[in-house]
Amino acid sequence: MAAMTLYQKLVRTHEVARLDDQHVLLYVDLHIMNEYTSPQAFAGLDERALPVRRPGQQMAVVDHVIPTHPVPPAARVIADPASALQARNLKRNCIAHDIALFDTTDPGQGIEHVVAPERGMILPGMTVLCGDSHTTTYGALGALGFGIGTSEVEHVLATQTLVYRLARTMRVRIDGVLPPGTTAKDLVIHVVHRLGAQGARGYAVEFCGAAVAALSAEGRMTLCNMAVEAGARAALIAPDAVTLAYVRDHAGHLSAREWEGVLQDSRGLHSDPGAGFDAEHVLDASAIAPYVTWGTSPDQALPVTGSVPDPDGADDGLARMALRKAIDYMGLAPGVALDGLPVDRVFIGSCTNGRIEDLRAVAGLARGRRVAHGVRAMVVPGSGAVRRQAEAEGIARQLIDAGFEWRQPGCSMCLAMNDDALAPGERCASTTNRNFEGRQGRGGRTHLMSPLMAAAAALTGRITDVRTFGREGHE
């Protein structure tokens, strides 16, 4: 048998039928839904009088539209009428079809891509689909995860399969060691910057190398989560001891026999020696500095020591136009240094950086310090479980004492679909995954960065190189 990539193995083991050279009917192990992308799919089922084929392989969460005010979970209310209707419809549909739901007041509620791994729902070798582009997150655990559209959600609900167009394969090897002050978030912003916003379009990307192996499971989730910002259709990391330790800690529901099956399956989940990739890239982690986006696309990023580029240096007219548009929207000018740029808001959370590891890093930097005067800094844990763990570890108290707002879980200010939003012209240091125009609020200006960098910005009132934080003039 010819050598195969990890991606090809995952597709092969889930192929129900080969439709043509480019398409297969793919079996879906787990389908995840939210209140935003599922209503039309359920309506389609109702119109055709179709049941959900396998309710036990569905899971739903209210996360996009829910406010994150710091009230007890039982008191959480969605006041916006349209958003409340979406949540009610999801609950009604889940009850009607016997689908597990983490509803508005459920203590387990959180962001779908945080809740699923922490509850042991993601196992190596699975296929996991969701009506959300950041479903690539699950590749961190050796699962094939990707986002789908509303019509595809309906198809999965009705058949537990998907008509799937095969992706090309790309391997990104990242060697070296991340320097102090840099994290998985800096690594993935660097990758997106190097590849470009469309550099991985149409590809399933496999990450490997010493720097990837050194990441925690949570750090790998950050890496795979944002691979879609380079256009990737999927992101994968071959499971190893780190993966299996994470899964073992979170999948306590597995019997001894089921766990042995996971171990057995994982042994073959890697790209074979000699497997061919359609594209390959090699990067050096030791040369990476803390990164910050300056523009309105995640690839418009530079080390924090850099300056806003000059559009006149672009290769062609379209590129110059795009650079000027981004610079104008961000209220910047060519040559402006990123380090020292004042911020109005700081947001720490999202499916990219709302896990306990991220909050520990923020609390460690904030301990004994205060949020800068005039800055509003919010910390939104990725799930109820993360929130409770942070409170048990004393992280929440450290953040509150430092002047951070300690919120309830949800997508929050990652996108302006709830009441956590930027005002026009406000500049935000954000741990989210997208910095598009209006993404965090109409006219809002977003600079993506790591939790450590965002914490430093909150404490200084400006974008700050965390490697120099604590020195004279930086506190």
UniProtKB/TrEMBL annotation:
Statement: the UniProt record of this protein carries the keyword Iron-sulfur: yes
A Pfam family annotated for this UniProt entry: Aconitase
InterPro entries reported in the protein's UniProt record: 3-IsopropMal_deHydase_lsu (IPR004430), Acnase/IPM_dHydase_lsu_aba_1/3 (IPR015931), Acoase/IPM_deHydtase_lsu_aba (IPR001030), Aconitase_4Fe-4S_BS (IPR018136), Aconitase_4Fe-4S_dom (IPR036008), IPM_dehydratase_rel_enz (IPR050067), IPMI_cat (IPR033941)
Binding sites annotated in the UniProt record for [4Fe-4S] cluster: 351, 411, 414
Note on cofactor: Binds 1 [4Fe-4S] cluster per subunit.
Catalytic class of the enzyme: lyase
UniProt superkingdom: Bacteria
Described function: Catalyzes the isomerization between 2-isopropylmalate and 3-isopropylmalate, via the formation of 2-isopropylmaleate.
Protein name: 3-isopropylmalate dehydratase large subunit
Organism annotation: Bordetella genomosp. 8
Lineage: Bacteria, Pseudomonadati, Pseudomonadota, Betaproteobacteria, Burkholderiales
Gene name of the record: leuC
